[in-house]
Specification:
Blueprint lengths: L11 H17 L9 E6 L11 E5 L12 E5 L12 H4 E6 L6 E5 L12 H15 L3 E6 L20
Antiparallel strand pairs: 1-3, 1-6, 2-5, 3-4, 4-5
């Protein structure tokens, strides 16, 4: 299987729709409760995020991210419910454009945004994207952080099938 995602799949409307679908599905299977859980994805989109997220402001990175240089991270806003993303992606998501040198960033949001800041786990998401994109030379990477109410969702892992463990 190739690590390259087709350019057609990486168009921003498709990505926003897919994030909404993932959020809806996580709620259907009760893998997130209330505003718990978040989604982010990294990509190198050719179209302007400004077409979807017209407001911008500088965003300080926790440290330089050369592996993500020139890319964009789409992430959920803090306190947003995953099930609501699909109904209004612009209100629930923000786009972070990493500078070409990986040392600075800009946060793009919509006038309809319903959050003050990105998810509180944004720095952790950046670190995971940085590691995976840098190690595997990926042009797209997605990350889902869910908080299932019941840990039975982990039952597909062999060691958790042992009740004593």
């Amino acid at each position: 299987m190739s690590n390259i995602v087709s350019a057609n799949a990486l168009c921003l409307p498709n990505i926003l729709a897919a994030i909404g679908e993932v959020g809806r599905r996580l709620c259907e299977i009760a893998a997130s409760e209330g505003a718990a859980g978040n989604i982010s994805c990294f990509g190198r989109w050719s179209e302007n995020v400004e077409d979807f997220f017209s407001q911008s402001q500088p965003l300080e990175l926790p440290e330089p991210m050369p592996e993500l240089a020139g890319g964009i991270v789409i992430a959920t806003g803090s306190g947003r419910r995953l099930r609501e993303i699909g109904q209004s992606p612009e209100a629930n998501l923000g786009a972070v454009r990493i500078s070409d040198d990986g040392k600075a960033a800009r946060l793009y949001t919509s006038p309809q945004k319903m959050f003050e800041r990105l998810t509180s786990e944004f720095n952790s998401h950046l670190a995971v994207h940085r590691d995976c994109v840098g190690r595997e030379n990926l042009n797209f990477h997605a990350l889902v952080h869910a908080q299932p109410v019941h840990l039975t969702y982990l039952s597909h892992i062999d060691r958790y099938q042992n009740e004593k463990y």
